[in-house]
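Tutorial, part two.
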Amino acid sequence: MLLATSEYIAKNAAGESVPCVLSLHAPEPDPLSEQGDYRCKVEIAGLLFEKYAYGVDALQALCLGVESLRLAIAKLKSEGWTFYFPAYPDDEFDLLSAYFPLRLSKN
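Running the prediction step on this input gives:
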C-alpha cells in the first residue's frame, strides 16, 4: 500500500530532464521472513530506483525505508542530479534540506 509520494522533475549533469516520483510504501510483513520481520518498499520512478528496507518490526522497516530514500537522493545529488517542482522548472528544490534536515551529532 502506497503511503506517500512526491513528484519532481530531475535533471542530470548534462541538463537532460526526466519526470520522477518518490514513493514510500507502508511497511508490510516480509513474506520470506520466518521471524515475523517487516519490509518497506521505496521507489524513485523515472530514475530506476526500487528497494526494500527490512526491519524487525513495522516501525524499524519504515524508518530504514526513509533512510534508504535519503541515501538514494544524496547519491543522485553527488552524481550531479538536481530536482525541481513541475510547476517551477527553473527553481532548484533542495530535497535533502527540505525533507531530511541536518542531523546534529553528539560529542
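The chain has one domain: 2-99. In part three we will examine how such features are distributed along the chain.
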